[in-house]
């Protein structure tokens, strides 16, 4: 059996436990033995990390020690896959530039749907209608799928040109915003790092988004694609 490591925690609003539990049966059905950790400390265990075929990273914000991030990078460079969704992978460990380079993107913001005086202060303020536009329909992760619409957080991410972008999303101009033209950002991407593969899906704010047929299909395919 291949070895999958799930590292989860951080901000509870992203439901790290419930969200990862959604995919554990899928991993087991695909012949993965799964270990779950609530801290990135496991990344510093070099002998164990060498045996891991897939890391599912689901820890929003939080912190990571230098030996831990270097252990994760070493494992991915040697062939361990790294995969995740939403803030659990691209809003993790903000203080580590090495982690950000490995993942290839960092959450910047999500646009509010209402002007400031009309916001309620809860998460739904950031739920907007938006489209995920596929730009690579031949990749194993997206093959056979079409563009699709979501009503949830729309991530504006800062990324670099080393990513292989599979889908984008465009944040509209809003009268109360500071940007004056639509901004298109990657929504789904992959990245080769040494011998390892990285997969990121920015949709996935909460369980109900991950249960969307398109999002769940993309995440499940991404987990398998990234794995050694």
Entry keywords:
single chain, 228 residues, alpha/beta, Rossmann fold, two-stranded antiparallel sheet
State the share of residues found in helices, binned by percent. Answer: 25-40%
- Known CATH architecture: 3-Layer(aba) Sandwich
CATH superfamily: Class I glutamine amidotransferase (GATase) domain
> What is the 3D shape?
globular
Alpha-carbon Rg, integer: 17 Å
Helix and strand string, N-terminal first? EHEHEHEHHEEEEEEEHH
Report the end-to-end length measured between terminal Cα atoms.
12 Å
CATH class call: Alpha Beta
Strand fraction: 25-35%
Low-confidence stretches: none
- Structural category: alpha/beta
Total strands: the figure is 11
Helical segment count: 7
- Summed up, the domain count is 1
Average pLDDT, to the nearest integer?
Answer: 97
Strand arrangement in the largest pleated sheet: 2-1-3-4-11-10-9-6-7
How can the largest sheet be summarized? 9 strands, mixed
What does this 3D model show about the protein?
This protein has 228 residues and is an alpha/beta fold. The protein has a single domain, classed as Rossmann fold. 26% of the residues lie in helices and 34% in strands. The protein has helices spanning 16-29, 46-49, 66-77, 87-90, 97-103, 207-210, 213-226, and strands at 2-10, 32-37, 54-60, 81-85, 105-110, 127-134, 148-153, 155-159, 164-171, 183-193, 196-201. The strands form two sheets. It has a nine-stranded mixed beta sheet. It is globular. 43% of the residues are buried. The mean pLDDT is 97.
Topology:
Elements: E1 2-10, H1 16-29, E2 32-37, H2 46-49, E3 54-60, H3 66-77, E4 81-85, H4 87-90, H5 97-103, E5 105-110, E6 127-134, E7 148-153, E8 155-159, E9 164-171, E10 183-193, E11 196-201, H6 207-210, H7 213-226
Parallel strand pairs: 1-2, 1-3, 3-4, 4-11
Antiparallel strand pairs: 5-8, 6-7, 6-9, 9-10, 10-11
